[in-house]
Amino acid sequence: MTQGRGSGAPGAGAAENSDGSLVRLEALHKWFGDLHVLKGIDLGMKQGEVQVIIGPSGSGKSTLLRCVNLLEVPTQGRVWFEGRDICDIRTDLNEIRTHIGIVLQAFNLFPHRTVLSNITLALEKVLGLGDDEARERAVQQLGHVGLAHKVDSYPGQLSGGQQQRVAVARALAFHPRLLLMDEPLGALDRALRVEMQEELRRIHRESETTVVYVTHDQEDALTLSDRVAILWDGRLQQIGAPRDLYRAPANRLVATFFG
Question: Per-domain residue ranges for the chain?
């Protein structure tokens, strides 16, 4: 199977998002050598929602997330963002990625730079903002995550939860239409996880950014999601509101994992 930037004809575009999805994955497959990780995923992410993708380790969750902004290139299938086929080789991926933020479990903060500089540097390098505008955006977003008083601190002086907030603030400073989050609470203890679950819901309400959140933790799914997609062995098993999945699981796998 040949790997490349998608397999469909370019230019079909807007009709693929006729259901109102901000993002739509269409017949998505991903192979790593002989390992078939994603097996024909069809999935839409609606504007303004928090969609949690949950499944056991090795189910393909992180690979699916990375395919959304082509950090991993799908072997087959299409990824539509706002009606544009971003697998089309003519697509300007750098422009697309300015609208898609990502927060990983490893927060990737520069330890030798202050909290403020960690954010302004990204804005200056990626968006080309001037010093004053980058600082204004950074301070605004740090205020939204309750860290305006930490602008001159260094990452090593912050708690794990505070570092996580800086990573979220950095992603939101780009004013993304879509925020991807890959197990961002996995390294936190339970008390911090609960605190950050509440914080993420508040930030989402204020920013109205569409969020796709990958986790293996059922509590994250129940607490954060508008809809949950259950992935198992590279296949989408069911998608719906948490209560619907709990009350009417599509199969034994969903009932075992989510019941």
Answer: 117-174
